[in-house]
UniProtKB/TrEMBL annotation:
The lineage of its organism: Bacteria, Bacillati, Bacillota, Bacilli, Lactobacillales. This is Putative hemin import ATP-binding protein HrtA. It holds the Pfam family ABC_tran. GO terms for molecular function: ATP binding; ATP hydrolysis activity; transmembrane transporter activity. The keyword ATP-binding applies.
Amino acid sequence: MSVIELKNINKYFGTGTAKVHVLHDINFSAAKGDLIVVVGPSGSGKSTFLTIAGGLQTPSSGEVIVEGKPVSELNKKQRDKLRLNQVGFVLQSYSLVPYLRVKEQFEFVRKIKPNGNLGHEELENLLNELGIESLVNKYPGQLSGGQTQRVAIARALYANPEIVLADEPTAALDSARVIEVGKMFKELAERHNKAVVIVTHDTRLMDFADQTYEILDGRMSVRKPTHITNNQFES
């Protein structure tokens, strides 16, 4: 069963002669346990698609449905609650609070969302799985790009969302790091039973996808995924 659906989504920016049709009749769905990769070049509409899926923007027409509920029927308070409780974002800029240590990033989430987060033991297990348990007393400025990325993923998962949306998570990473990140998101979908959607220009992530879509000039189509074997990408 799909946990998120986009039905006949169109998005326009501007008015009159400056009006631009950014997304054209987008149809998309993802279920728990799925890793979906949406590829396309810069300016193709990927980020607009992701922000509409996550409720940060509203479509010009069409409907976003999360766990069977049309988002258009929710008031502002309900939409804010949906984003807080059901959607986790991993943004290209990571969006960690620069003056908070790693462990304080999770305390910050808890202040905003007191209930429904992972328990203490579950968080410890998550930090261990991501290999960042030794970084809890460091500030974001003391972390490498890969470490920062894993902390951002952990923070998104701490809120225990059903849907994880990632924007260009492998930007500027070498092939070895891309493989590591691909494995991480694949495990996230399967082991934690999340619907994971990645938008990227990096076609290397297609090797980890259960389903791949392509966006070109605001139009989405299904692209045949590349399946990985059990021993592929072994370190």
